[in-house]
Amino acid sequence: MHTIAFCIQPSLDQIPLPLSNVLDNGLALAPDFHSPCQASRRHIDMNTKETLVTYFGHMAEIEAAWAKLGPCEEQFRKLLDDEGAFARRGHRLFDEESFAPLRFTAADLQKAFEKVGFPPNMEAPETVRKILLAAIRFLASEERQEELAMELMLRMPKYVEEGRFMDARLIRFVAGAAPEEQVEVNPFLRQMFFHGLRAWYAEQKADKEAVLRELGLRRRKKMGPDEIEAWAAEAAADPAKAARLQRLIDAHAGLRGQAAATADALRGHTAELLERQDAACLMLRAEEFEPWMPFVTEKLKGLFEKYGQPPGGAPPSEAERKEAFATVYLPAMRELAKGIFTPERIRKLVADLKVYRQSLFEAGENSAVFYATAVINYVEPEDDPSQNVFLVNLCARSLHGIGSGPDERRGEEDGGL
User: Fold this and answer.
1) pLDDT by residue (tens digit) across 61-108?
2) Contacts 24+ apart (CB under 8 A), 14-20
3) Domain edges within the chain
4) What is the pLDDT of residues 283-298, one digit of tens each?
5) Do 275 and 367 contact (CB within 8 A), yes or no?
């Protein structure tokens, strides 16, 4: 039910990051020493054969056009030295309709994501970037690049004929890039991929709308997470509705894949919700720790005796800090979580989280609403609190907040980790 809820949340749609923002990591341009003609010496599939025949049929025209580009070589080399200008020119050029037949499609992107994993919403840009780069590499196989290189060279003479020599030289440069070069820095491949990515996101949005219409769930901008979860719970409780909903989700592989990826990714970031100042309402009270204070005191005493900084001595090393955390502090917090978070206490926390989530929704904090939803889904079914990252972090942060008075801060300065 949790994955389904992520599929149908209408108020939390994420606008995909521009590909240039996600992929930019320096534009290491490659020398254009590779020729598409090398495709004739490689194994090629039937889809490429027609392009190859056409390419060789226009060889004389292509070579004549190439010969006219010599005078612009110095100007083109200056363009290569200006990464920003190079990227802008490549974006404008390869966004033209003459290259539309070469763009990757939504179907191409779906196939790639099924292979390398779906890009989740609400994930760190670097994580999304890695997924998108993997998708580009999957789609831009060596054979596919050979075919695209020939398609580019077939278009070059037209630009020479129109007097667009710099654009023609850029086409020749990109077509001549060796397939083994990093595909993510190829401005043509980036633009072709971006069009496919944009089409894929549009398709997911359309699929979500179709699912909502089929289910008779009227989409409203102000539809809150509680309403969505209530509807999903009602549907899950009705076998007929649940089966129908599952059939609809299964029929939209991209929507299902991205929803599952989002749910999995958010689980790894649930503790980040506790970094917000307004999350103080979730912290444990001092009296909840009282039965455990002898245990906490004993553990901290042992921690400081073994790893604390003695008067006039050297502070603990990084290795010692890691050892102290792994062997003393973390096991102690796990033990606290196991003892404090009974089934009844977890139910209370879930209720508090839903109240907190509603306040975030009313404040327009959609990203935080996503995190709160992930926390609820993570915590609610928990049967071993000692292994729940959110609950363990909640114990640690709550304990630190309770004991962070002037006396403790002074103690940390004297000999703390």
Assistant:
1) 999 999 999 999 999 999 989 989 998 999 999 999 999 999 999 999
2) 14/121, 14/122, 16/119, 16/197, 16/198, 16/201, 17/125, 17/128, 18/194, 19/132, 19/190, 19/193, 19/194, 19/197, 20/87, 20/91, 20/190, 20/194
3) 2-200, 272-415
4) 999 999 999 999 989 9
5) no
